[in-house]
Amino acid sequence: MTRSSTLARRTALKAGLAAGALGAPALASAQGNFNWKMTSAYPKGSPFYMDGPGSATDLAKRIREMSGGRLNIQVFGAGELIPAFEGFDAVRAGTVEMNHANAYFWTGKTFAAQYFTAVPFGMNFQGMNGWFYDGGGIDLWNEVYAPFGMVAMPCGNTGVQMTGWFKKEIKTVADLKGLKMRIPGLAGRVYANLGVDVKVLPGGEIFPALERGVIDAAEFVGPFQDRRLGLQKAAKFYYTTGWHEPATVSELLINKAAWGRLPKELQSIVENAAAACNVIGEGWCQKANSDAMEDLVKNQGVIARPLPDAVIAALRAETNKVLAEAVAKDPMTKKVHDSYMAFKAKYDRWSEVSEEAYQLKVRG
Ligand code: CA
Q1: Are 176 and 306 in contact (CB under 8 A)?
Q2: How many domains does one find in the chain?
Q3: Of 193, 225, 271, 285, which is least packed with CB atoms within 10 Å of its CB?
Q4: Ligand 1 center to residue 139 CA distance, Å?
Q5: Distance from the alpha carbon of residue 265 to the mean position of ligand 1, in angstroms
Q6: Residue 77, in any domain of the structure
């Protein structure tokens, strides 16, 4: 801090104290308080997304406590202030300062957003964090959103998701043809190329659609979240191989002008609270999913198994084609893709002799 700004601060503090003595707002307003709104793509009460460790409300609470109440964020579930998937436009317009969702909901605005949520056959939680925090991933995210006047950062992660629920067994690639399936993002395009009739529905609409046969299959998140929606009551085949979302990132999206008005220390509090929620939320998922998967298989007659190898091979080939097409169309997508894939190649080589080697050969 320069001498003149220190003096200015002292003068402001004195003025604040004097105003306080006269009954006007004192120190707090001299420092600057911020009352913000944060919307979510998930309904009020949703575990992990809206409630519990690492959720949107937990993030707001951490920010409020760390800032001593200077940054107050009111959290709204999907449909409370705006519909589920309108967070991007609301933050862009400045109607709300923040939105809590997943970047892959915005691929219609900018395809590169996909890479900041999950890339099919891409990196796991550890690899994603390496790319985000130390491999230039967050900087690229902000570059992609700069034309929209927004910034973003990771604030949660589900870990590897499940392929999803199918009313009928999937034995070959041909079994996918004509299947009506709820699946968002890039994975939806991949399935569509293999003949799947792709539907994008908010979480709350999945169970009724699957139960009534409006759809034949659905992916949502993982054992805990899927069981909460009751999907096991509408379909019995639960394919485990989460090829499509190996580590799904929750996105904290922020209006750039509002972000610029926050003093540095409040920006730092937001960044630190988001990083804490990124890890704490993922930890919660590991515990919740281990319990739920055991219950689904032991008590609820669910048949949990990986997809056949030939189906995975077809999905991989189609994913590579879809990514190549997207990269050819858009220079920004190419820039993000190249950064992601270069990091992944390095991380894969390291992981083979570290995390994977431990899991496969040592753990027992
Ligand atoms: Ca999902």
Answers
A1: no
A2: 1
A3: 271
A4: 25
A5: 34
A6: yes
DSSP 10-48: HHHHHHHHHHHHTTS--HHHHH--EEEEEEESS-TT-BT
CA of 222 to the centre of ligand 1 (A): 8
Q: Confirm whether 119 is domain-assigned.
A: yes
Order the strands of the 34-40 sheet from edge to edge. Answer: 71-76, 34-40, 98-101, 249-255, 150-157
Q: Which residues pair with 305 in a beta bridge?
A: 239
Tens digit of each residue's pLDDT (9 = 90 or more) over 213-248: 999 999 999 999 999 999 999 999 999 989 999 999
* Residue 255 Cα to ligand 1 middle (Å): 25
CA of 32 to the centre of ligand 1 (A): 39
CB 269 within 8 A of CB 66: yes
Please, which contacts does 317-322 make with residues 24 or more away whose CB atoms are closer than 8 Å?
318/190, 318/193, 318/194, 319/120, 319/121, 319/186, 319/187, 319/190, 319/243, 321/193, 322/186, 322/189, 322/190, 322/193
d(CA 161, ligand 1 centre) in Å = 6
13 CA to middle of ligand 1, Å?
50
How much distance in Å is there from the Cα of 69 to the middle of ligand 1?
34
pLDDT at 31: 62
CA of 200 to the centre of ligand 1 (A): 11
What pLDDT score does 24 carry? 42
CATH number, position 106? 3.40.190.170
Q: Among 2-16, 19-33, 223-237, whose mean pLDDT is lowest? A: 2-16
CA 42 / ligand 1 centre spacing (Å): 12
Domain containing 56 equals 33-156+247-287
Q: Has residue 2 been placed in a domain? A: no
Is 292 inside any structural domain? no
Give the global pTM.
0.88
CA of 147 to the centre of ligand 1 (A): 27
Instruction: Quote the ligand 1 centre to 289 CA distance (angstroms).
Output: 14
